[in-house]
């Protein structure tokens, strides 16, 4: 590793000499330098090291606008999947405690939730994961550097510590896995000054209180779901539709369930301003785009869940000519995760057109490491990626939405099998199961290949994961019917689905 001289001109000279030397000799400090120690970057660097490569991974967390900071592991571990799923679990337990009384548990006194206890336990778990990642890197002989990386050329990365100390690293290959960060609607007065994002919500020590969640996709609905579930007055402000890109019948079931669960929805509304009152409360003014009327209400917190932007600012990509997609700012990639500049690769949330999901980032990172180490030529398959939205009623799916299948195959070219079912655990608890539903979208002709599978209900992620394998193997409707169910489960309903939408028959499952 060569130290970078501070003076501009001296740095240039040192760097030129350095570049010259390694171009002649082909020697680099590392085989691989990975910028970004999140889901993808960690998987890629550990895999490469296991294959005998000399690897360094740079991870640096720029604090959120509110000043929230966290450790190694990226979005998923610190401000994404992990704390989110644990807060979702906290909310589900609230429902379970209510159900428990119907099952004979004697619970005296009112049931209430303490945010600080939950937050502390989850934050401690996340810290243990941060530590675990550091240990794993050490065990696997990956050099971890807590520095912010930028590109100098296609073999050179400059790193800078928080204190401004600079380091130069050279590598045969460079991988960018810097993910993304939440957007703020900067055009809305007070949005940035008074609002939170998902980078903050999981690290709050005190309850956010009455909360307005702006946005209506994964992050908005999941956060609104657990906030409602732990007893907070929660409103979701939706400017257009919920869960854009997902099957809209299923999206409707998810939001109907949330509505019945206690989450409020302000449909077709757009925020205009956020003002802090002398009481400390946040006054939000918004426009109802249906009527054009303006409304105001006060909240303790406003959570912006209005999408994410790729983290490319600090990387110096333009200087090297790494091509970005203008509309999204993400890096344009080949199927082998190559950028427009030789020896520079990228994947995960930073990659244009890639799913913003942890398992795809991990798998893509491992496969890239194997290819760069010359151990494999296998490319990442981004088709048939299953996903689950962890809303109070979970929604899991794989493949096409009904709308997309209809667009591609025509209304007469698809057959949709569907069922409304009642999870057994809902019966004794006397819970409403109106939104527990599944549908299997198939080609109508031939063997009725399954095009899309959708499920709302308890443990939708667990259910969908298993069926995703069948889907990956090209399952047909008859394969589904040949599959023996496991009784009594919710997943078995998928193996029994027989009513077509076309028939117009009642799709409610009755009996076992
Ligand atoms: P990241 O995990 O974002 O890692 C990038 C890392 O690079 C970060 O640590 C960042 O600080 C660092 N970095 C950035 N710039 C630099 C630089 N110049 N130098 C050094 N380091 C840098 N996905 C799921 O599959 N399931 C879920 O349930 C789920 N829930 C989510 C919930 C929320 C609230 C959010 C926001 C996301 C969720 N996701 C979920 C998405 C998932 O977290 C991301 O898809 C995944 O983390 C992307 O991994 P990555 O490696 O591309 O980037
Ligand atoms: P997203 O999917 O891009 O959705 C952004 C939402 O904000 C949309 O509802 C959008 O509405 C709305 N919006 C955008 N700008 C707005 C504005 N100015 N005012 C009001 N509303 C606005 O973003 P996300 O929910 O942050 O999720 C990002 C990614 O993280 C997802 O694609 C997903 O892959 C990943 N993620 C995964 C999980 C999981 O696997 N369970 C969970 C969370 C996140 P319009 O539809 O009108 O544009």
TrEMBL record:
InterPro entries: FAD/NAD-bd_sf, FAD/NAD-binding_dom, FAD/NAD-linked_Rdtase_dimer_sf, GSHR/TRXR-like, Pyr_nuc-diS_OxRdtase, Pyr_nucl-diS_OxRdtase_dimer, Pyr_OxRdtase_I_AS, Thioredoxin/glutathione_Rdtase. Disulfide bonds join 76-81. Residues 385-496 form the Pyridine nucleotide-disulphide oxidoreductase dimerisation domain. GO terms for molecular function: flavin adenine dinucleotide binding; glutathione-disulfide reductase (NADPH) activity; thioredoxin-disulfide reductase (NADPH) activity. Coiled coil: none annotated. Residues 30-365 form the FAD/NAD(P)-binding domain. It is an enzyme of class 1 (oxidoreductase). Keywords: Disulfide bond, FAD, Flavoprotein, NAD, NADP, Nucleotide-binding, Oxidoreductase, Redox-active center, Selenocysteine. Its EC number is 1.8.1.9. NAD(+) binds at residues 215-222, 307. Binds 1 FAD per subunit. The active site is at residue 487. One of its GO terms (cellular component) is mitochondrion. Its cofactor is FAD. GO terms for biological process: cell redox homeostasis; cellular response to oxidative stress; glutathione metabolic process. FAD binds at residues 85, 149, 349. Belongs to the class-I pyridine nucleotide-disulfide oxidoreductase family. This is thioredoxin-disulfide reductase (NADPH). The gene is txnrd2.2.
């Amino acid at each position: 590793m060569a130290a970078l001289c501070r003076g501009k001109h001296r740095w240039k000279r040192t760097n030129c000499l350095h570049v010259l030397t390694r171009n002649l000799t082909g020697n680099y400090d590392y085989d691989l330098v990975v910028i970004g120690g999140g889901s993808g970057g960690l998987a890629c660097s550990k895999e490469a090291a296991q294959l005998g490569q000399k690897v360094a991974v740079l991870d640096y967390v720029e604090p959120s606008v509110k000043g929230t900071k966290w450790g190694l592991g990226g979005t998923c571990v610190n401000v994404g999947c992990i704390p989110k799923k644990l807060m979702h679990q906290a909310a589900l337990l609230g429902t379970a405690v209510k159900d428990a009384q119907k099952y004979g548990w004697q619970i005296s006194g009112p049931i209430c939730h303490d945010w600080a206890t939950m937050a502390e336990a989850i934050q401690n778990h996340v810290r243990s994961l941060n530590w675990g990642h550091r240990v794993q890197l050490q065990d696997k002989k990956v050099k971890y550097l807590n520095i912010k990386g930028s590109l100098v050329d296609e073999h050179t990365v400059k790193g800078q510590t928080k204190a401004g100390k600079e380091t130069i690293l050279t590598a045969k290959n460079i991988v960018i896995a810097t993910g993304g960060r939440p957007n703020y609607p900067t055009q809305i007065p007070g949005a940035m000054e008074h609002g939170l994002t998902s980078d903050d919500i999981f690290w709050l020590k005190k309850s956010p209180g009455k909360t307005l969640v702006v946005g209506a996709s994964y992050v908005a609905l999941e956060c609104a779901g657990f906030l409602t579930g732990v007893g907070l007055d929660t409103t979701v402000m939706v400017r257009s539709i919920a869960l854009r890109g997902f099957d809209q019948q299923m999206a409707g079931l998810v939001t109907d369930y949330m509505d019945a669960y206690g989450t409020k929805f302000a449909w077709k509304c757009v925020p205009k301003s956020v003002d802090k009152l002398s009481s400390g409360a946040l006054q939000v003014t918004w426009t109802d785009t249906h009527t054009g009327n303006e409304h105001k209400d006060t909240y303790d917190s406003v959570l912006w869940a209005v999408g994410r932007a790729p983290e490319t600012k600090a990387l110096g990509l333009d200087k090297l000519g790494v091509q970005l997609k203008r509309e999204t700012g993400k890096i344009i990639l080949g199927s082998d995760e190559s950028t427009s500049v030789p020896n520079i690769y990228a994947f995960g949330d930073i990659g244009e057109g890639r799913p913003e999901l942890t398992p795809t980032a991990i798998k893509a990172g491992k496969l890239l490491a194997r290819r760069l180490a010359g151990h494999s030529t296998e490319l990442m398959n981004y088709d048939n990626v299953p996903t689950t939205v962890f809303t109070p009623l979970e929604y899991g799916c794989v493949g096409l939405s009904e709308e997309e299948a209809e667009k591609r195959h025509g209304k007469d070219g698809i057959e949709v099998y569907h069922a409304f079912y009642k999870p057994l655990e809902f019966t004794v608890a006397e819970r409403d199961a109106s939104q527990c539903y599944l549908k299997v979208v198939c080609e109508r002709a031939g063997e009725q290949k399954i095009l899309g599978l959708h499920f709302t209900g308890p443990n939708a992620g667990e259910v969908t994961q298993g069926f995703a394998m069948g889907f990956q193997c090209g399952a047909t409707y008859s394969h589904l019917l040949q599959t023996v169910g496991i009784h009594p489960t919710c997943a078995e309903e998928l193996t029994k689905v027989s009513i077509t939408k076309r028939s117009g028959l009642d799709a409610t499952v009755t009996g076992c």
